[in-house]
Design brief:
The chain is an alpha/beta fold. It contains 3 helices and 7 strands.
Length: about 160
């Protein structure tokens, strides 16, 4: 059974609230430079996770159940300048921020796609969604996140 998001007002009062399941896929944007799992200041990591979770709330109903389904996560990072560090170090804090909120546990994530799009590199998206188009038009740094329940999407 899906888990109720721990920040849900439903936990405070049962007074007529209707709990809604998340309709996947969802997409959202997180402004700012991602914090690496290896960040020296643990407060920075906590702040980044809170920012990710906060950004996701615009894409989901409230209150809602965290899903127990299999997941696929796509993360595109649009840095303002050449990225320092490794792209793989930004993934875990994003996944952790969504635990017990979008999905119950990050062990449900079966597929992760992560890519950086540094300035002055040429890239083309054939049919960007409106959320991805917003990321492309936004002032960097920006992180685009898509979560779906189809871990086999885009496989050839």
């Amino acid at each position: 059974m899906p888990l109720l998001d721990s920040s849900s007002p439903f936990l405070l009062s049962l007074g007529g609230s209707q709990i809604i399941e998340i309709n996947f896929p969802i997409e959202f944007l997180v402004e700012g430079t991602p914090v690496s799992l290896q960040a020296k200041r643990s407060a920075s990591l906590v702040e980044w996770r809170d920012r990710v979770k906060g950004a996701s709330t615009h894409a989901i109903p409230s209150p809602h159940f965290a899903s127990d389904e299999r997941m696929a996560v796509t993360v595109y990072y649009f840095p303002a300048e050449r990225m320092q560090g490794d792209i793989d170090n930004i993934v875990k804090p994003i996944l952790d921020a969504l635990c017990r909120h979008i999905y119950i546990d990050d062990n449900q994530v079966e597929r992760i796609v992560v890519q950086k799009f540094e300035p002055r590199n040429v890239y083309t998206f054939s049919a960007p969604t409106s959320t991805l188009a917003q990321a492309l038009d936004a002032r960097p740094p920006m992180v685009y996140v898509k979560i779906s329940t189809d871990p086999h999407e885009e496989l050839v």
